[in-house]
Amino acid sequence: MPSALAVFSCRPNSHPFQERHVYLDEPVKIGRSVARCRPAQNNATFDCKVLSRNHALVWFDHNTGKFYLQDTKSSNGTFINSQRLSRGSEESPPCEVLSGDIIQFGVDVTENTRKVTHGCIVSTIKLFLPDGMEARRRSDVAPDPLPLAIDKVSANTPSMYSQELFQLSQYLQEALHREQMLEQKLATLQRLLASTQEASESSWQALIDEDRLLSRLEVMGNQLQAYSKNQTEDGIRKELVALTEDKHNYETTAKESLRRVLQEKIEVVRKLSEVERSLSNTEDECTHLREMNERTQEELQELANKYNGALAEGKHEELSQKGLNEKKELQMRIEEMEDKEQALQARIEALQADNDFTNERLTALQVRLEQLQEKSIKENNSLAVRQLKEAVDSSINKLSNFDEVIDAHLQNNQTVVDNSLPSPDRLKENQIDAKECDMSDTLSPSKEKSSDDTSDGQMDDHELNDPQSRVSLLKVTPAEGGEVMRFIGVSDKDSGFSLMDQGGSVHFSTSLFLGTGDEGQWMPGRLRGVQRSVRLPSLDVTSKMDRNLEAGDTEQVMPHLHQELQEAQELANTGKQKCLELQALLEEERRTNRQQNEESAKQIRFLQTQLAKLQSDMEALREQRENTITSTREELYTAQEEIVMLQQAMESATVERERDIATLQADLGIVTRDLDKWRQTAAKYEVEISSLQASFQLQNQHQERANQLQGELEKLQAECCGLQSECKSLRAEKETLTQKLQRLQEELD
């Protein structure tokens, strides 16, 4: 038949043991290991000193199907979930145990040093029924499963926490009791010490008095013996000689002792002088070492001050040099920005002039177109209009070629990045190129004037003499059946474009002012003149136009001229846009310059603040140096004062030594006088001896009387003791009688 199983598992706060699997076929004893029963995994014997040999019993009841635990008069108790089963050394009734309960056998035993020496057994018990199922747990049953008797015991038994408090209170009471006992022992020891001191003092005083009395009795006995003898004159003389010898010996011993004391005193004085001499030498050496130390400290302080000053000066110079360099760099940057601003301003002005010139040229072309239309209508001559159309087409083509050249130069100049500012020589060359272009532009109107003088007066003087007009008709020659006009030149000063008649050929010149900045953008101030001369072959315009001109071509030329005018207006608009872009760039440059100026101003202010800080640090270092100088001077003054005090101490020591010598001499005189006094006292002692003999006789009489009184006292004490014993016996009889009387009264009652 299978049996129930109980598994005991060790908990962390327990005395260590292996897990136990105990089969509960019959009640199993739980206890301490002995020689007959050793711990094993299948029993409940533990190697723990706080357990009793027969500590508890555990068994399984087949009738009820429950597990029970009983404390069998253990000394330290058995606990289930911190509830003790019984009082001390009493057997408890059986108590039901459930699976998962915490069982504690015994308590921790502590020594007087309050160190845990032996731990108790604390285990978690798991219970299995004979069918292999685990028994009920505490959480699966009602919260109050214990029987009434156990409930009473549990109610009267404190919990683990209250038990620990009780133990602590017991420990405290024991400690207080020990402290009181120690205090009582200390008080008794103090009383005993005081009594022993008093007894020792009294005994010592009695011993001294006894020695004195014995010495005096001996002297008096000798005197009495000497006086009782019937001596002759020779004997008396011998006694006197002996007394004189004793006196002489006493004097010699006294003199020897005095001489020895005087010699010791002289030796002490000599040692004192040597000590004073060594003291003076050590003081001199100490002063010398102190002076050397002060000197070295001053030198070190000076070196430190010099080093700090050199560091501060070097730092100050470095910062000042750095500030100057930064200031120079900022000034150079400001100058560069100003140059850039001027160049941008010049570029803007040039573009503005270019824009104005293009507008004027467009107006002149429009006026010329209107005049040509009027002439074509009046003279019905389309040859001149066709010729003008070809000339305008060629000029527009050249303008388009000019734009292509500008774009090409812009691309070339954007690929080449110049990091440095333009040199003055290059600026001068660009200015010379611009002047040459202006001269060529001024020459073209003069040629136009000379050619207009030979023409038929088809154009008015206001258009030909206008200095701002850059479009001119240089030569108009009559052809067959009408006038033929040759479009000789168109000049553009600001864009560098010009057309001039040079012996039957047309000269095309361009002057470009381009620049690239450090970032590959347009940078004003970097002007580069590029001239191109294009020689066009001479055209026999008159012959070709005379052969190919027809009367109905004027109507076809007009739309082309309008288209060309629109293209010229578009060119003017692009010029305006470029001008606006350059103005925006200039504003950006100004903004960046302003920011850089603000940053430079901030850096200058920062450098100024650093300079002020350095100046304040220099002033602080100067003040510190002055303070150190004043402190060293004060230390020097104190050292001088100490030297003066030491000198005064030496003088006082010499004076004291002289005083000691004088006092020793005075003591020597006193000793000699004392010796004389002792001689006088010796004579007095002789007189006292006689008086002491008489007193000794009287004392003997008193002693005899005291002996008699002592005998009588002893008799009286014996009689008193007898009376006390009789009194005790009478009291005992009285007590017996009173007891008998009480018994009789009780019997009577």
**Class from secondary-structure proportions:** alpha+beta
Helical residues, percent: 55-70%
Portion in beta strands: 5-15%
Mean pLDDT: 71
Domain FHA: 28-85
Membrane topology: Single-pass type IV membrane protein; Single-pass membrane protein
Region (Disordered): 431-471
Coiled coil: 172-199, 265-382, 579-631, 675-747
Key terms:
single chain, 749 residues, alpha+beta, Tumour Suppressor Smad4, 6-stranded antiparallel β-sheet, 5-stranded mixed β-sheet, 20 strands, flat
Could you characterize what this model shows?
With 749 residues, this protein is an alpha+beta fold. Among the domains are: 1-136, Tumour Suppressor Smad4 (Sandwich), CATH 2.60.200; 270-379; 569-640. Helices cover 66% and strands 12% of the residues. The protein contains 8 helices and 20 strands. The chain has a 6-stranded antiparallel beta sheet with strand order 2-1-13-10-7-8, with no helix packed on it. The protein has a 5-stranded mixed beta sheet with strand order 4-3-5-6-9, with no helix packed on it. β5 and β6 form a beta hairpin. The model is unreliable at 142-161, 412-432 and 438-552 (pLDDT under 50).
